[in-house]
Amino acid sequence: MLWIGLILVVAALVLFFFATRSKKKAYFIQATETSKIGDVQRLVDEVKADMIDGMSSGYRDYIEVKGQIVADQPLAGELSEGRFAICQTTVSRIVERLETNRDSQGNVRQTWRKSTERLTQNRRDTPFWIDDGTGRIRVKAGTKGVDLVKVVDRFEPPSSFEGGLGSRLQVSLGGFSLGIGGMGSQSRTVGYQLVEEVLPVGQRVYALGEVADTEDEGVVLRTPTDEQKDRPFMLSTKTEEELLQKSAKSQTILRVIGAVVGVGGLALVVLGILR
């Protein structure tokens, strides 16, 4: 009982941590005023005016911008149609494995256990910018803080997805193809789950991050560095208002659950000590 209580207390602390992190993101969304990209570029140009040509001004700031995604060489989806700046395709195989168990009386029972295994996750991106009508800024986005749009999420039976390739299987659909190992006699494939998430060209986005004048790529919007590295980077297809509403709801849910779990955990700890 004592250990269960301690585990619940730790779980409550984790929930409160995530609630605090969500509150921190909401603070920066509210506290950071929207910048016009054209104004940022002019400010950088003024700083560089008295410098040697080709040198970086070293300018950095934490800004909020809103605009439209543009890309000179957009990507095509592997499972969907469209023009994208980022495309992430995930294929998982749903399998059943035969398990043999023997009870205390020596009786043998066989059951099929279902599980999901990720076969591949392919993330592609192309250089892209945010254009707010006053100018455009290159976005250097990693995987953290980027909100993608799910355009494909479907199940495919093995018959429509598999083909023989010697001792291996070739799974293919649309522009996607992958060679995988076959299943043994104690396993069987139920089907495949296909998911594709994208950042469409032309999509309106909200962005929060560090603007920096770099030597190799000029002015870019990127994940905060150095003294600003604790500030969040966000690239979302949601509006500022939607993000704040989502954050407020998330904070409330996490705190309520955390409080209930924490009180229950403390009660079990006390009972465990008294016993």
Structure description:
This protein is of the alpha+beta class. The chain has one domain. The chain has three helices and 13 strands, in the order H-H-E-E-E-E-E-E-E-E-E-E-E-E-E-H. It has helices at 2-31, 37-48, 240-274; strands at 60-70, 84-102, 108-125, 129-131, 136-140, 149-156, 162-165, 168-173, 176-181, 187-200, 204-214, 218-222, 234-236. The strands form three sheets. It has a five-stranded mixed β-barrel with strand order 1-4-5-12-11. Strands 3-2-10-6 form a four-stranded antiparallel beta sheet, with no helix packed on it. Strands 7-8-9 form a three-stranded antiparallel beta sheet, with no helix packed on it. A hairpin with a 2-residue loop joins strand 7 and strand 8 (168-173). Helix 1 (2-31) packs antiparallel against helix 3 (240-274).
List the helices and strands and how they pair.
Layout: H1 2-31, H2 37-48, E1 60-70, E2 84-102, E3 108-125, E4 129-131, E5 136-140, E6 149-156, E7 162-165, E8 168-173, E9 176-181, E10 187-200, E11 204-214, E12 218-222, E13 234-236, H3 240-274
Helix pairs in contact: 1-3
